[in-house]
Recover the amino acids of this structure.
């Protein structure tokens, strides 16, 4: 008899449980020789899920300073779903004579009312949620490329959309069961209808909160400002700053309201499930109702994981891509510990760059140094242009540019053999760059 696993189990135990359950289901599917397209797709998804669960198990075993507790519901449901689907395969196989060589009844398999492809999408949701949780944790400790961040953003958006679709499907299935229960029951019909009406009202209120929160996000993304940086608010622009602070407070209040509504919705669902169980006699219907109730909680937990990962990505990570030509100064620094991903790219021997984690004082000093270097170079060039006698370098040989070079690039002069300025290491970050000048023709 399989061991009982519940939410009270530790995260590592839940991770191992889901991992072993997925492996067992893969082996069961592989034991049948008949593999239609849907079954092959399911097998590929299971193998991908197994690898993700393996990575999670290894991470949880080796890490103590990362909180993955939000994955408890998804891991438990993932493990149970794999085991229950394996049992459905064996039941269907036994009804067909138990012959794994000639088994052809894959199309008859159902899980929570869905076919094999629906079950594959269910597993894909678990897998993607775990990937997002792992990636969110790694971003807090390491750096990735801009391309990887873009792919991560796309993944969060795609998984969130899929989860919303999955939640609507669960709601529809629950409504069908509740509607059947209301029709069949007698004395509890009035109470059941009231609970159902309140559930629908709560759902509409949640949708209002979500739409208003999205609208606030759109406003915050495009503030009116004279700054050349999109989304930048001038610290001296008091009206804009007060408005954005007020909008943020409104969004925080909406989040609290939505959380209370979610709790209320959960209580309503529990009451409806309890009433439906009392009016339902079929063991199969009871099992489906229990699974749908668990999946309702799990899908919302997965959605919260995606939402928090998206918030972390927006608030704590900046993506910067500087590009300049000629006499340019480029800064890509973080003074508040915010993670930076990006590049400084510049063309021209006078390009000056700095990037990394620095204190405010260090950034101000480097900026003054850059200004001083620019002023000295400008003064030197102006002084050189006033005289008609070309300068003679240390080697004693006068270097005169040919006429073709002068026509194309203008006046030129030889730099000193080495001009190097080291950027100091701040107490809040790492060494961030090196300023250098070298002769270039």
């Amino acid at each position: 008899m399989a061991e009982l696993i519940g939410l009270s189990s530790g995260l590592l135990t839940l991770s191992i449980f889901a991992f072993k359950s997925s492996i067992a289901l893969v082996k069961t599917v592989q034991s049948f020789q008949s593999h239609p397209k849907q079954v092959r797709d399911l097998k590929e998804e299971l193998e991908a899920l197994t690898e993700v669960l393996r990575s999670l198990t290894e991470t949880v075993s080796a890490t103590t300073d990362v909180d993955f507790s939000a994955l408890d519901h998804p891991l438990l449901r993932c493990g149970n779903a794999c085991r229950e689907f394996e049992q459905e395969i064996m039941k269907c196989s036994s009804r067909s004579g138990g012959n794994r060589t000639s088994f052809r009844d894959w199309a008859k398999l159902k899980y929570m009312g869905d076919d094999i492809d629906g079950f594959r999408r269910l597993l894909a949701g678990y897998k993607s949620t775990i990937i997002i949780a792992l990636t969110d944790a790694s971003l807090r400790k390491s750096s990735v490329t801009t391309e990887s961040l873009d792919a991560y953003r796309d993944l969060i958006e795609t998984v969130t959309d899929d989860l919303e679709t999955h939640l609507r499907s669960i709601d529809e299935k629950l409504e069908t069961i509740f509607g059947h229960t209301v029709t069949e029951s007698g004395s509890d019909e009035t109470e059941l209808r009231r609970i159902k009406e309140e559930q629908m009202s709560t759902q509409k209120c949640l949708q209002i909160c979500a739409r208003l929160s999205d609208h606030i996000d759109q406003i915050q993304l495009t503030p009116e400002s004279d700054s050349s940086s999109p989304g930048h608010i001038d610290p001296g622009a008091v009206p804009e700053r007060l408005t954005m602070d007020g909008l943020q407070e409104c969004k925080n209040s909406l989040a609290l309201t939505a959380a209370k509504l979610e709790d209320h919705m959960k209580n309503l669902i529990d009451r409806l499930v309890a009433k439906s169980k009392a009016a339902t006699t079929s063991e199969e219907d009871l099992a489906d109702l229990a699974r749908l109730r668990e999946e309702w909680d799990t899908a919302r937990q997965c959605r919260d994981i995606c939402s928090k990962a998206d918030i972390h990505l927006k608030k704590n990570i900046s993506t910067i891509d500087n590009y300049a030509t000629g006499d340019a100064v480029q800064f890509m620094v973080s003074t508040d510990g915010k993670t930076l991903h990006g590049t400084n790219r510049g063309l021209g021997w006078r390009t000056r760059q700095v990037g990394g984690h620095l204190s405010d004082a260090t950034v101000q000093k480097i900026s003054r140094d850059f200004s001083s270097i620019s002023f000295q170079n400008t003064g030197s060039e102006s002084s050189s242009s006033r005289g008609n006698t070309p300068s003679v370098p240390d080697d004693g040989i006068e270097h005169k540019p040919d006429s073709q070079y002068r026509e194309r690039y203008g006046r030129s002069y030889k730099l000193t053999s080495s001009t190097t300025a080291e950027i100091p290491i701040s107490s809040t970050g790492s060494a961030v760059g090196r300023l250098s000048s070298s002769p270039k023709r």
